[in-house]
Amino acid sequence: MTRMTGGSMTSEAERPANLRGAGMPAVDISDVAVRFRTKKRDVTALENVSLRVDAEEFVAIVGPSGCGKSTLLKLVSGLLRPSSGDVRLLDEAVTAPRRDVGYVFQRAALLEWRSVRRNIALQAEMRRMPSAQAAARVDELIGMTGLRGFEDAYPHELSGGMQQRVSLCRALLHRPPVLLMDEPFGALDALTREHMNVELRRIRQETRTTVLLVTHSIAEAVYLADRVVVMTARPGTVAEIIDVNLPQERDYAETLVHPEFARASGRIRELLGAADAAE
Ligand SMILES: Nc1ncnc2c1ncn2[C@@H]1O[C@H](COP(=O)(O)OP(=O)(O)OP(=O)(O)O)[C@@H](O)[C@H]1O
Ligand SMILES: [Mg+2]
């Protein structure tokens, strides 16, 4: 598959400063449980979950629906507190919503009345970033994600893939050291999704951002990630963590026929089959 347009960035300048060569885990989840109590029922969403993600690592999370994947991302961002256990982000306990992460949701969640440029700039406005600095950064991201020429288009004038690029730009605007992605490509058709996978991989190689990606696609997980966390059905626990021993530079077509791709995918499929059977 060919690459999309988008200038190559100076990787050192793009790197999140506070993690450069620091050698500490970017995310450290230790023995976490999450229980939801509602009027109708008590739900244990996560139980006994531990996961360390190194700086600059790309980790994918797969598991049956309702096993607590979104809950896990919310814990890392501080949108939710665990019932027990600890979550640390960039060597600091997570006790409140954190502004130093980027978050991409399943739906692009763009404001219909704002242009591409102004949807991306929203992140800068929320952070009261000086406008000249923000405009330069928005422009840089538009180039990096191949949105050049669509700066003034409105969301309804964009394809689903382009809308997701805009939300990716918005999430990357403040150069977050950690990027959380919750099924970002779930609503796209298969081919656009492959294209976005290639794009995301390239952008990640440039930014060196640590990524936690939730996905239902085994191929997406294996193509993109350094490690894949396979979770069990509710209460969600870590069934197994699969190392993906593929080269860092991954051509899409070549990766798909790589024996390591087959091995990792096969193992994940096996584990997910077992989880389904237990449901
Ligand atoms: N705010 C909440 N109040 C009560 N229960 C909740 C809440 N949020 C999540 N849950 C429950 O916790 C469990 C895990 O939810 P979560 O959204 O994390 O699953 P998921 O793995 O992301 O599923 P999917 O793949 O369908 O997105 C589910 O049973 C869900 O109903
Ligand atoms: Mg979810």
Structural class: alpha/beta
Q: pLDDT below 50 for ≥5 consecutive residues: which ranges?
A: 1-20
CATH H-level superfamily of the largest domain: P-loop containing nucleotide triphosphate hydrolases
Alpha carbon gap, first and last residue: 38 Å
- Supply the number of structural domains: 2
**CATH level 1 class label of the largest domain:** Alpha Beta
Mean pLDDT: 89
CATH topology of the largest domain: Rossmann fold
Pfam families: ABC_tran
Protein name: Aliphatic sulfonates import ATP-binding protein SsuB
Keywords: ATP-binding, Hydrolase, Nucleotide-binding, Transport
GO molecular function: ATP binding; ATP hydrolysis activity
Describe the overall structure:
- This protein has 279 residues and is α/β, with parallel strands linked by helices.
- It folds into two domains: 187 residues, P-loop containing nucleotide triphosphate hydrolases (Rossmann fold); 65 residues, no CATH class.
- Helix content is 36%, strand content 23%.
- It contains nine helices and ten strands.
- The strands form two sheets. A six-stranded mixed β-sheet has the order 6-7-8-3-9-10, with helices on both faces.
- Helix 3 crosses helix 4, helix 3 packs parallel to helix 5 and helix 7 packs across helix 9.
- The longest helix has 20 residues.
- The N terminus is likely disordered.
- Adenosine-5'-triphosphate (ATP) binds next to strand 2 and helix 2.
